[in-house]
Specification:
Mean pLDDT: 90
Number of helices: 14
Structural class: alpha+beta
Strand content: 15-25%
Distance between the termini: 96 Å
Low-confidence stretches: 1-20
Shape: globular
Largest sheet: 7 strands, antiparallel
Strand order of the largest sheet: 12-19-18-13-14-15-17
Number of strands: 20
Radius of gyration: 26 Å
Length: about 550
């Protein structure tokens, strides 16, 4: 294991090293691959230091020392509009007919230049057997200092039980592979072998997420919830998909009980492989993640299984996969969210944990396309005003009061990843007729979605064993969040992160960024104004009484 954890002696570069006389199964990261819905051969490997890449300079700035896939010059790139209203901008783009063909994203974060497929990790660690039967040295990318946990003997034992696919760098001189991502190849969606298992009466997606405490230690599992043509042979390979991803609560971070949310697109592989799907991952760009996460369109294997930042290393995950009979619905979403990423990198709007978080941004793209997912409403306006006053006074901070106010007044489908997952999933089940629901007039996009979905599969993804404590299911409400966190905030386990200021010279002066909300919300201001007005009226009235009494005396 020590050898796997020490790579200081290796000279690693994002440029492709020579791979002559390399182990079987080794290739460059784009050879014969797909990046979601697009052929990887239409991209080239670069880093954020690229000077001839046509992608946004703002996007490249975030990935200066990271390995990227950027489109070749011949490919049409996703653009962005001038509006700061993301929903309106994507709606106008979709209505223009441009969504029929998927343009290319400015970048995809592939994280490493090589793929080593069909390998097996030697149980003792420090080596792997490649597809040609040879043995190759194995190293791991180093642990990020701020990351609280890392690969250990339990991780080696888990991956040694199954064939793996890795992203990393092959070090020719040392005859070793330096792994950044390790993907278990038995994590597949095998449509041919799935038995239909619809939700039973009274059974809900929420109950499935909450079962087994979130299922962090449960085995990987897939469940066919619905299919359009029961009894017919399923031929899902190369079928386009949309994946609704929910990541659970971390076990060592009290601020992360809400979980995380993302939408993925791609195609199912011949054996049901899905590691090459693209996940549209929104994180706060204005802080440096303790695990090295950067908001980006990223391959699924990196999203879940990067040994530092992979979601599966610190919590369980759940994904509802819509297998589609044609690509147009997935193409529309991917094209729309790529435009949102362009605005995001340009800082036309900023990530905000209540009003523009991973769930809110993702759901807003669907809203712009015309999927009118039924809303749940805010937690409580009155509770929000009381909490604002309490925290503003307790912390002597209007910012602290505004933060809790925003959480309690935001639409819950946009706020909570778990509620977004439940709302999209339940509405999708109703659209295809798998569950009864309230009838409504459907938009053209909803009719398209209803027509395109061929099957719905629920995927449960366990947490990868490591030195990290097990996570759990995410919360579905503010009250549940408060029950699971220590009463005294001083006792919360919090991972501090450093700020990442956006350079002023990269801002577009022609665009006015979306402004942050005022520190005093208007309902609170109105109440304060009313209280002050009544108090002033009462004081004036009292003075007049005193004056009349004095005259009478």
């Amino acid at each position: 294991m020590n050898r796997m954890l020490t790579i200081a002696a290796l000279s690693l570069s994002a440029a492709l090293p020579a791979i002559a006389a390399a182990p079987g199964g080794l290739k460059d990261a784009l050879s014969g691959e797909r990046l979601g819905l697009l052929p990887a051969g239409h991209f080239r490997i670069a880093t954020g230091h690229c000077i001839d890449c046509r992608t946004l300079k703002q996007g490249l700035w975030y990935f200066r020392d990271q390995t990227l896939a950027v489109p070749h010059a011949a490919q049409a790139l996703s653009s962005h509009g001038a509006s700061g209203d993301m929903v309106r901008e994507v709606r106008d783009w979709f209505a223009s007919g441009q969504a029929d063909t998927l343009a290319y994203p400015g970048l995809v974060w592939v994280a490493a230049p090589h793929i080593l497929d069909d390998a097996t990790i030697v149980p003792a660690g420090g080596a792997l057997r490649s597809a040609d039967g040879g043995q190759t040295g194995l190293y791991l990318m180093p642990k990020i200092a701020s990351n609280r946990a890392f690969w250990n003997g339990k991780t080696t034992a888990f991956f040694a039980q199954r064939p793996v696919r890795m992203r990393g760098t092959y070090a020719q001189q040392q005859q070793a592979f330096v792994a950044r991502t390790v993907w278990p190849k038995d994590f597949i969606i095998d449509g041919a072998r799935l038995a239909a298992q619809p939700l039973a009466p009274g059974e809900t997606l929420r109950a499935l997420v909450q079962s087994d405490g979130g299922g962090a230690a449960s085995p990987y599992a897939t469940r066919l919830l619905w299919e359009r043509t029961p009894g017919q042979a399923r031929q899902w390979h190369d079928k386009p998909v949309i994946g609704v991803m929910l990541n659970g609560a971390q076990g060592d971070d009290d601020e992360a009980f809400g979980g995380h949310f993302a939408i993925a697109t791609g195609q199912l592989g011949r054996r049901g492989e899905w590691s090459d799907w693209i996940v549209n991952n929104f994180y706060n760009l204005d802080s440096t993640s303790e695990k090295g996460t950067i908001a980006a369109p990223v391959t699924m294997d990196n999203y879940l299984m990067d040994i530092n930042s992979g979601q599966s290393y610190y919590r369980p995950s759940y994904m509802l996969v819509a297998v589609l009979n044609q690509p147009r619905t997935a193409v529309a979403y991917q094209g729309g969210v790529q435009r949102v990423f362009n605005h995001f990198y340009r800082h036309d709007f900023s990530y905000r944990h209540a009003q523009a978080n991973c769930a809110g941004i993702s759901v807003d793209v669907f809203k712009a396309l015309g999927w009118n997912v039924p809303e749940r409403g805010p937690t409580s306006q009155w509770q929000a005003m009381g909490a604002y006053a309490y925290l503003a006074a307790k912390d002597l901070s209007l910012e602290s009061g505004r933060k809790i106010y925003d959480y309690l007044t935001e639409e819950q489908v946009r706020l909570y990843p778990a509620v977004a997952f439940e709302a999209l999933g339940e509405d999708l089940l109703q659209l295809v007729g798998a569950r009864a629901g309230t009838a409504r007039a459907l938009s053209s996009f909803e009719q398209q979605l209803q027509s395109d979905v061929e099957a719905l599969v629920l995927v449960r993804i366990p947490q990868i064993p490591s030195s990290r404590v097990l996570g759990a299911n995410p919360v579905f409400s503010f009250d549940e969040f408060m029950r699971r966190t220590p009463p005294d905030r001083a006792d919360w386990k919090i991972v501090p992160v450093d700020a990442r200021p956006f350079p002023a010279e990269l801002r577009d002066p022609a665009v006015t960024p979306v402004a942050a909300p005022a520190l005093v919300p208007w309902p609170v201001a109105a109440i304060l104004a009313g209280v002050i007005g009544v108090a002033g009226w009462w004081r004036r009235r009292r003075r007049r009484r005193v004056a009349r009494a004095a005259v009478a005396a």
